[in-house]
Amino acid sequence: MNMVARDTRIESHTIVVAVDNEPGVLARVVGLFAGRGYNVESLTVAETDKAAHTSRITVVTSGTPAVIDQIKAQLGRLIPVHRVVDITTEKPGIEREMALVKVACTGEKRVEAMRVSDIFRARALDTTHSSFVFEITGAQGKIDAYIELMRPLGLVEVSRTGIAAISRGPDPM
Amino acid sequence: MNKQNMADGMEMTGSEMVVRALKDQGVKHIFGYPGGAVLPIYDALFQDNELVHVLVRHEQGAVHAAEGYARSTGKPGVVLVTSGPGATNAVTGLTDALMDSIPLVVITGQVATHLIGNDAFQECDTVGITRPCTKHNWLVRDVNDLARVLHEAFEVATSGRPGPVVVDIPKDVQFKKATYIGPEKVHHRTYRPRVDAEDETIRQAVRMMAAAKRPVFYTGGGIINSGPGASMLLRELAKLTGFPVTSTLMGLGAFPASDPQWLGPIGMHGTYEANLAANRCDLLVALGSRFDDRVTGRVDAFSPGSKKIHLDIDPSQINKNIRVDLPIIADAGRALRAMLRIWKEEKLVPDPALPQWWAQIEQWRGKNSLSFKNSTKVIKPQHAIDRLYALTRGRETYITTEVGQHQMWAMQRFKFDEPNRWMTSGGLGTMGYGLPAAVGVQMAHPDALVIDIAGEASVQMTMQEMSTAVQYDLPIKIFILNNEYMGMVRQWQQLLHGARYSHSYSEALPDFVKLAEAYGAVGLRAETPDELDAKIKEMIEVKRPVLFDVRVDPHENCYPMIPSGAAHDEMILSDGDDEPEVSEEGKMLV
């Protein structure tokens, strides 16, 4: 059997991409995913070194192991891309996401929202007599769980940053 | 003291910089079409006496001409077009060049920076539109970046896996002044494609080769792109190992078709022996080829019993379609040189079982899969190509093609012994490629015999470039195998769609002889086999552009053929051969 698609398990991978911060670089990355039919579960991008004009893109994607390999190779082909590192397999890393969560509630629900937020170490950034905006940071699963708990308490809307990732230990990516 | 040092540090306008940079990059010819947003550059060209500009009739023609120029010389092709429709018309050629790894530098004019995003006249988002069909592109908003970007553009287009790049230059940037920098001071900040593999990898590869009992070299366009040296090294390696050689459409000429080790092309319309060898081999050595779907057929049945070595300069090609055992990321020529060195160092010899393998191959070759039933009444397209080949032998001949049956027949029957002599649209399959490509080839090789083997349908897509050929006295020969059908479409409709010939008949064809004359070119026509040779000779002798209308059998099909979704050992060899069983999944494939 030759078929590349031998292994059909769908895996989720977090890939960190160091790029030149030049116009259109994000469009190249996004266009690559759209054009070749790859999934984007989350994507974050920001300049990380102003002097060196480099930005860092963290993309969470899913596919079979062969597709994940193709995604990394295709990213590597883009001219402004310096490095591509798979935080899921190549280097153990830390992944964090931040979310802003708006809840509208009064009475007992309001107390419960405060209590749950306390357990999750979420901070209230904005308060009115009938609402909160909480900030929560953590692994994706923790944020998912927090949002689920907030839903019956009057969840209004959520803004999530997508995942940012970095490798463990003293070395750079 | 060379020119770039003189120009370096000089103050000049953006337009002057474009001309200067092109010359410093060694450019002699550019293909283009003026328009509002490139007028300043055209003005700078007007005042220059060195660059030769070829005025095409449509921007697609400019890009294909530049492709033909690049493929036949190994140098990058250069295109200059205006904004908006100039840029959008170039898109087909850019995509074609990207698929076939052809180095091009395409300069587009853009509306002035303050108008960008305003829906200005002849504005389009050129970098947005061309992002997926270029290797890289730039919009230069600041004249101070222009010289650097132009030099980087050449570096990116020509290094690593070659490809087309676009430099989009707003009109105000063309007028503004800045300090020019020469190419020797410019090196892309981060782009460093890998060109050499580890010795250890190469050593593993040659040991696998020496241990193989049924090996085959499957070579591709990567050998051609690496330069003529790579073709010579391939020949040396083939001689040293005694392995059979097949090639993709793009790789023809890297290994001489007249050599007994040549199996003919692989793939959908490849030879029986090439496809069977690929199917039954125990070691497949892919050299600068990419396991394209036209080559592999059904992937799960492709070369099922072999170990596979894959040499490619582009890491993304590894394991893309076919899982390989040993990837080698390197330039083809450099890796071939290392293979030869290590094979000799280790004093390796091919496995003693190799002659048995050759005996098997000779048996397959005995099928004579390219044979066809000739006729004395009607010109068979295969016969026309055979005669064209026979009557042009010994000349410096360059062949371009359009896309379809005629292209496959040309691939099968025209024997290329040298690289860079064969220009065809492989990956994208662009009808209309061949005529403008011939214009580009003839510009680069004014004394050579340049022939576009064409179909009557394809050639009408870019026919207007005959006017270009006439203007520049380019004696290109357009050899039209006129079967009055989009032949390959008709063939597929016959085999897959119950002979329902939906819109594949070339109705209302022009009289190609009169059309040639209207352009100021020479028109010829052959309707019977007995007049063919004399007309071909006439075509060769006349030193003007020729449209040659060769009326061929309208119903001839191109065989052998591996139907879509089938394996290499499920070939149809001729009409009336077992009716092809094309699965429903197979029909979905193109």
Give a brief description:
Chain A has 173 residues and is α+β, with helices and mostly antiparallel strands.
Explain what you see.
The complex is a heterodimer of chains A (173) and B (590). Chain A has 173 residues and is an alpha+beta fold. Chain A has two domains: 11-91, Alpha-Beta Plaits; 94-165, Alpha-Beta Plaits (2-Layer Sandwich), CATH 3.30.70. Chain A has helices at 25-36, 65-77, 107-119, 140-150; strands at 11-20, 42-49, 54-63, 81-86, 93-104, 123-128, 131-138, 155-160, 164-167. In chain A, strands 5, 6, 7, 8 and 9 form a five-stranded antiparallel beta sheet that branches. In chain A, strand 6 and strand 7 (131-138) form a beta hairpin. The two termini of chain A are 35 Å apart. The model of chain A is unreliable at 1-5 (pLDDT under 50). With 590 residues, chain B is α/β, with parallel strands linked by helices. In chain B, strands 3-2-4-5-7-6 form a six-stranded parallel beta sheet. Chain B is globular and about 70 Å long. The interface between A and B is medium-sized, with 22 and 27 residues.
Total count of strands of chain A: 9
The CATH topology of the largest domain in chain A is Alpha-Beta Plaits
Low-confidence stretches of chain B: none
Radius of gyration of chain A: 19 Å
CATH superfamily of the largest domain in chain A: ACT domain
The CATH architecture classification of the largest domain in chain A is 2-Layer Sandwich
Q: What is the helix/strand order of chain A? A: EHEEHEEHEEHEE
User: Which structural class do you get from the secondary structure elements of chain B?
Assistant: alpha/beta
Rounded mean pLDDT of chain B is 96
Distance between the termini of chain A: 35 Å
Largest sheet of chain B: 6 strands, parallel
List its traits:
heterodimer, A: 173 residues, alpha+beta, Alpha-Beta Plaits, 2 domains, 5-stranded antiparallel sheet, 4-stranded antiparallel sheet, 4 helices, 40% strand, disordered N terminus, B: 590 residues, alpha/beta, 6-stranded parallel sheet, 24 helices, 20 strands, 38% helix, globular
